[in-house]
Amino acid sequence: MKPWLALNQLGASFELTLIDVLQGEQSSETYKAINPLAVVPFLITDAGRGVGESNAMLWHICEGSYLIPDDASDRAEALQWMFFEQTKLEPYISPARFFNYILPSDRDARASDIANWQEKAKPGLDRLNAHLADRVFILDVGYSVADISVFGYVHVLEQAGLNGQDFPNVMRWIKAVRETKNFVELDDLGISTASAA
């Protein structure tokens, strides 16, 4: 969702090709000819270069726009939160959401894993909740690439079986992000697979 949201918010023209990971399309020879690593998401730039990893894609898309702060310290803080998202939030919210919401047929079999992922997500969500106690967006300078990065999985925390009421500042922030210019909901992407966030 992250690169897709940024493209929409910046009014960029792009072509979206959906890959059904539940059907294994990322492992097809056709897709591997585009991305030999066979992972999603993946960006082909206007120059024909491939960029993997959603946050790298996001940074590339936002480069030179209002979503990348002008100040070097603010850019470093944005990157800090993007790394935080990948190490303290996504590794736990993503699989919990996958088995709780996207593949509920496996929910019971993975119940102990889901509970473990949920518990491991809470310290990161607590830290984000505390950080957002006195600010509207993640950076003091306003809405940025950091918000889009963190929003990707955090806004679906309840689909992972976590209780949004435990993180009131996070829920307020999610609402604020949804009110930003050209925001588009995940449901408008047209898929509900694990690759969407």
List the helices and strands and how they pair.
Layout: H1 2-9, H2 29-34, E1 42-44, E2 50-52, H3 54-62, H4 72-102, H5 111-131, H6 145-154, H7 168-178
Antiparallel strand pairs: 1-2
Order of helices and strands: HHEEHHHHH
Structural class, judged by helices and strands? Answer: mainly alpha
Mean pLDDT reading? 93
Which percent band covers the strand fraction? under 5%
Global morphology: globular
Number of DSSP helices?
A: 7
User: How many whole angstroms does the radius of gyration measure?
Assistant: 17 Å
Poorly predicted tracts of residues: 191-197
**Biggest sheet character:** 2 strands, antiparallel
Overall strand count: 2
Give the strand order of the largest sheet, numbering strands 1, 2, ... along the chain.
1-2
Q: How helix-rich are the residues, as a percent range? A: 40-55%
Distance between the termini: 4 Å
Q: What's this entry about, in short?
A:
The chain is mainly α. It is about 50% helix and about 5% strand. Strand 1 and strand 2 (about 50) form a beta hairpin.
Structural write-up:
There is one protein chain. By secondary structure, the protein is mainly alpha-helical. 49% of the residues lie in helices and 3% in strands. It contains seven helices and two strands. The protein has helices at residues 2-9, 29-34, 54-62, 72-102, 111-131, 145-154, 168-178; strands spanning 42-44, 50-52. Strands 1-2 form a two-stranded antiparallel sheet. Helix 4 packs antiparallel against helix 5.
Features:
mainly alpha
